[in-house]
Amino acid sequence: MAVTDGGAGAGLPAALGGTALFPEGLPLTRVQVPDRAELDRRLDGILTSGQLTNGDTVRELEEAAAEFLDVPHVVAVSNCTSGLMLALQAFGVAGHRVVMPSFTFSATAHAAHWAGGRPVFAEVNEHNVTLDPADAAAALAHSEAAGGVKALMATHVYGTPCDVEELQKTADDYGVPLLYDAAHAFGSRRNGQPIGGFGSAEVFSLSPTKVVVAAEGGLVATRDAALAEQIRLGRGYGNPGDYDCVFPGLNARMSELHAALALVSLRSLPERIAHRGAMVAAFAERVAGLPGLALPRLAEGDSSTWKDLTLIIDPDEFGCGTEALGAALKAEGIDSRRYFYPAVHLQKAYAEWAGERALPVTEKMADRVLTVPLWSHMDEATVLRIADAVVRIQGHADRI
Ligand SMILES: *Cc1c(COP(=O)(O)O)cnc(C)c1O
Fold first, then answer.
1. Mean pLDDT of 64-92
2. Which domains does the chain have, with CATH numbers?
3. Rounded to 5°, angle at Cα 288 from 283 and 289
4. pLDDT band at 3 (very low <50, low <70, confident <90, very high)
5. Is the pLDDT of residue 282 over 70?
6. Would residue 150 show up in a list of annotated catalytic residues for this protein?
7. What is the pLDDT of residue 7?
8. Which among 62, 185, 296, 381 is most buried, taking Cβ atoms within 10 Å?
């Protein structure tokens, strides 16, 4: 056994009659409420001014985010989904195919659908479940032959940067814009460079399970001034100001109140990400050598927000599958989620298109992932106890 020193991992799993490691229960996420004094001051200022939308706070957030991400343009929107929809509308995907991973959150595909596009799914790699550039190229070729393709989308899953150089080459080969669903990746870096400046645009989510939080909100980052302008127009109905709308836009504005929360949340982001990374490193050290367990692998020089702490489980080597592991963790009091399962192409909403391309790797990986609790103020004792739970379950996996 990996743990023989009498540590917490040495006992019998709770699923087999041992004492639960978290009898009080452990949720998957806990939102850290930022600096309340500054937030209260900002909210008070906004409420007193009466300017609840289209005001200075959203502009201040856009400027602060642009500086953090080192991109010229950031447009704040109501959420990541609406940001993706507006970008795809600007790319003219209506009536055309959009290539994207199936191993992603459903909103990636929903955005293409709402923009009038048709999702075509491509595979992810096995080492960090981000879009596989070779299969993306195959899906683009397929889509081109099948009637036309207008965009390539990729997701920085769990905060792990995609292979942005290969994906850009692939997009360029087919002459399509590359749009990143960067919902998890505000603060991730590719070879030192912030996620936010890659592809034609990158769209972040500020919903409560993400790393920067506005309650609800999104940010579109781009180097393309014309695209930024179109998304700015699109978030306000497509109305340039004279009520003579130039295209059918959305109401996808972020309110001043949400922007205030995001600004305060952004301030402490570097420390939060550093702490998350340290907790993941402590976890990785404690489970090192356990058979059949891997964490998403970062490329040399890359860094992740570790939006999620997700285990990749090889059921044959580990001794049981993710469903059994999740149930055994539940017995310890630990919440977990099979995130992302089922893959998008296997969801009811996309049944019509499920058979367009075979996705064996995606289906295998969706079966192998299990996300365990992590939050920005989790202490090391807690993360090590989660690791101990995994270790002792694995030690008895044949009976789990
Ligand atoms: C959360 C999430 C979204 C949706 O973000 P919203 O801000 O809730 O619209 C999109 N893509 C991924 C990968 C997500 O995790």
1. 98
2. 36-267 (3.40.640.10), 269-399 (3.90.1150.10)
3. 155
4. very low
5. yes
6. no
7. 53
8. 185
For 163-205, the pLDDT digits (tens) are 999 999 999 999 999 999 999 999 999 999 999 999 999 999 9
Average confidence (pLDDT) over 285-301? 97
Q: Which spans in 182-304 are helix H?
A: 225-235, 256-267, 269-287
Rounded Cα gap, residues 272 and 292, in angstroms: 29
Strand partners, 202: 180, 221
Whole-angstrom Cα distance, residue 80 to residue 31?
Answer: 18
**Residue pLDDT, tens place only, 90-123:** 999 999 999 999 999 999 999 999 999 999 999 9
User: How far is ligand 1, taken at its centre, from the CA of residue 183, in Å?
Assistant: 5
Residue 292 C-alpha to ligand 1 middle, in angstroms? 29
**Separation between Cα atoms, residue 101 and residue 344, nearest integer Å:** 8
Q: Cα of 81 to ligand 1 centre, how many Å?
A: 6
List the alpha helices (DSSP H) in the chain: 36-49, 56-69, 80-90, 106-114, 133-145, 164-173, 225-235, 256-267, 269-287, 315-318, 322-331, 360-368, 380-395
- Distance (Å, rounded) from C-alpha 62 to C-alpha 213? 14
Place of tokens 């919903």: 207
Which residues have CB under 6 Å of ligand 1?
79-81, 104-105, 107-108, 155, 181, 183-184, 205, 207, 218
What does the angle CA 300 – CA 302 – CA 307 come to, to the nearest 5 degrees? 135
Of these residues, 150, 169, 210, 330, which one is catalytic?
210
Cβ neighbours of residue 193 closer than 8 Å, sequence gap 6 or more: 70
Q: Tell which atom from ligand 1 comes closest to the C-alpha of 209.
A: 1
* Distance between CA atoms of residues 333 and 372, nearest Å: 11
What is the structure's pLDDT at 181? Answer: 99
